[in-house]
Write a structure and sequence with these properties.
4-stranded mixed beta sheet, 3-stranded parallel beta sheet, single chain, 45% helix, alpha/beta
């Protein structure tokens, strides 16, 4: 496959092996550090494996983000969204405001509500249960992709219950899938710098496993391009791989490039933040080579990268474009390059321009709706 390409012998050996089996952590670390003529063979290999594993369909979901509050007690160094309770811009949506946003989304064909927000200081499981019941009672056919391991862990502490019991209550109330947020970067060294008040690596793993044990599947994410090393990016992907090998509970892997411009750690003087374009491409490609068909769906965050570069990343091993979003205050606060709302037509055009087929999906990648 690489006979006529000016590629180093080590890279060629790894890429040839990757056509038949997943690469090791050591091999992934090598690929994260390549440059020059080795880059394009890596991208081509990842794209080839994507086609072999999932074909030429590019999926996405018609969804709507409902960020019910921006008040957050866990003030992370990367986040420009969270506010203190006494901040004049702080809010908590009322039931009526939540239903109004949901109604508009359903009228536009939404199949999923993404229910997120800050970590409220006194929120218990009853509060999150209420939000789920509110939406499910009114829109029973729309799935709910909601909360985060940190939010559920803290709510269980307030309620004085085990986290598995908390997830059972939320599942019974209508929680369909769990976002992979709060993972950020799964190394305690970096977490101590960017999110010391959030769950530790071990606590995040315990939380997602607890959710999966009660039947709540969900996303796996990585946020990269801040203070972590290239080796820590690989370590994170390997942790996701190990969990998936054990539980098969993740529906997708979502790399999210760090949007640094308005982040506290950038504004406080931390420099050299944000991944480069080639780093973005390498992370997606290496993810495909590490995860292969164990976790076949790799999602591009167009809201983080912009429409044009997201389209390019679809040629580096990715096969999913996330959702239409219907607004994303978290990314908007960080400076989303192309806004926080996309139409089915916009996403379809990106896909068709690559010669691939746009397909609308549900939250669990179990139902698919072809687009004309």
């Amino acid at each position: 496959m690489f006979d006529k390409l000016p590629i180093s012998s080590k890279t060629e050996k790894i890429l040839t092996k990757s056509l038949d089996e997943a690469i090791t952590v050591e091999e992934a670390n090598h690929l994260m550090n390549i440059n020059g003529a080795d880059l394009y063979p890596l991208l081509a290999t990842a794209d080839y494996l994507r086609q072999e594993i999932v074909g030429d369909n590019v999926t996405f979901i018609n969804n709507c983000n409902i960020n019910f509050t921006n008040i957050c007690t866990v003030r992370c160094g990367f986040c420009a969204f969270g506010k203190d309770a006494d901040d004049p811009e702080a809010y908590i949506l009322s039931d009526e405001e939540i239903l109004a946003k949901a109604e508009g989304a359903v009228a536009n064909g939404a199949r999923e509500f993404t229910l997120m927000g800050g970590v409220l200081p006194d929120a218990d499981i009853d509060y999150y249960q209420h939000l789920l019941t509110l939406l499910k009672d009114n829109y029973p056919k729309v799935s709910i992709h909601g909360f985060s391991p940190t939010m559920v862990r803290d709510a269980c502490l307030v309620s004085g219950m085990d986290i598995k019991e908390g997830f059972e209550i939320l599942k019974d109330a209508g929680l369909d899938t769990l976002p992979g947020t709060a993972a950020e970067i799964l190394t305690d060294r970096s977490r101590e710098i960017i999110c010391p008040e959030k769950v530790s690596v071990a606590e995040w793993i315990d939380a997602v496993k607890a959710a999966q044990e009660v039947g709540i599947q969900g996303s796996a994410t990585i946020m990269y391009g801040h203070v972590e090393t290239l080796e820590e990016r690989v370590e994170h992907i390997d942790i996701i791989r190990q969990i998936q090998e054990e539980t098969h509970g993740f529906t997708e892997f979502i790399p999210m490039t760090f949007m640094h411009e308005y982040s506290p750690i950038f504004l406080e003087g931390q420099s050299d933040l944000g991944a480069t374009g080639t780093q973005d491409l390498k992370l997606y490609a290496v993810s495909r080579l590490m995860l292969r068909d164990l976790l076949p769906n790799i999602q591009v965050s167009w809201v983080k990268m912009g429409f044009r570069f997201a389209q390019v990343v679809l040629t580096a091993g990715a096969n999913d474009l996330g959702g239409t979003l219907g607004g994303d205050e978290l990314s908007e606060a960080s400076g989303a390059p192309d806004g926080v709302d996309a139409s089915i037509g916009t996403l379809s055009r990106m896909v068709k321009d690559l010669g691939r087929t746009p397909i609308e999906r549900d939250s669990k990648y179990s139902e698919f709706y072809p687009i004309d």
